[in-house]
Design a protein that fits this description.
GO molecular function, one term: nucleic acid binding
Shape: elongated
Number of helices: 7
Keywords: Endonuclease, Hydrolase, Nuclease
Strand order of the largest sheet: 2-1-4-3
Protein name: 5-methylcytosine-specific restriction endonuclease McrA
Radius of gyration: 20 Å
Order of helices and strands: EEHEEHEEHHHHH
Organism: Streptomyces harbinensis
Largest sheet: 4 strands, mixed
Number of strands: 6
Helix content: 25-40%
Domain HNH nuclease: 70-119
Distance between the termini: 30 Å
């Protein structure tokens, strides 16, 4: 099902919702559509262009937002879908310092890896193999990562995410996935 970017009244990205939820916000006059997708949503009497980006009419106070959650999808987005060791297409998650040796399951210890590198590395540390990481792992920052980490991306969202670090994030993703 298509996803819709929801912006606060201040144009700050809040999250991604299903198109059905976005339509309910529009029909209840709680949001306005800023960008429409190519699809039409039809009922017996109306045809409404399906939104791609909606902005809430009233400002919603957002409680403190912690760090970006560590999910497989967000990790692959951060690493551009490429192996942190050899640059091949990543298919698995690897702990730089293995958990069996006290490594944590945290952003600065987890990287995307191809099956081959993950299998060869096993429960050894990178230095033991003489390998180097292509980039230092760390937590992604910026509001755009909350959206990019969901794995849902629409080119129409980019102008609304650019002020919140989307250019850097997407450049890293696109740059690595074309390597």
């Amino acid at each position: 099902m298509p996803q819709v970017l929801v912006l606060n009244a201040s144009y700050e990205p809040l999250g991604v919702v299903p198109i059905r939820r976005a339509l309910i916000l529009l029909l209840n006059d709680k949001a306005v559509s800023l960008e429409d997708s190519d699809a039409l949503m039809r009922s017996a009497t109306h045809a409404i262009p399906a939104p791609s980006v909606v902005r809430l009419k009233r400002f919603v106070r957002v409680p403190y937002r912690g760090a970006v959650p560590l999910t497989r999808r967000a990790l692959f987005a951060r690493d551009g879908g490429r192996c942190a060791y050899c640059g091949a297409v990543a298919t698995s998650v690897d702990h730089v310092i293995p958990r069996s040796r006290g490594g944590a399951h945290a952003w600065d210890n987890v990287v995307a890896a191809c099956r081959s590198c993950n299998h060869i590395k096993a429960d050894r540390q990178v230095a033991e193999l003489g390998w180097r990481l292509r980039h230092k792992p760390g937590p992604p920052s910026g509001l755009a990562w909350r959206i990019i980490g969901t794995g849902h991306r629409d080119p129409r969202w980019l102008p609304y995410l650019q002020p919140y670090g989307a250019d850097d994030a997407l450049a890293r993703i696109e740059g690595r996935s074309s390597a």
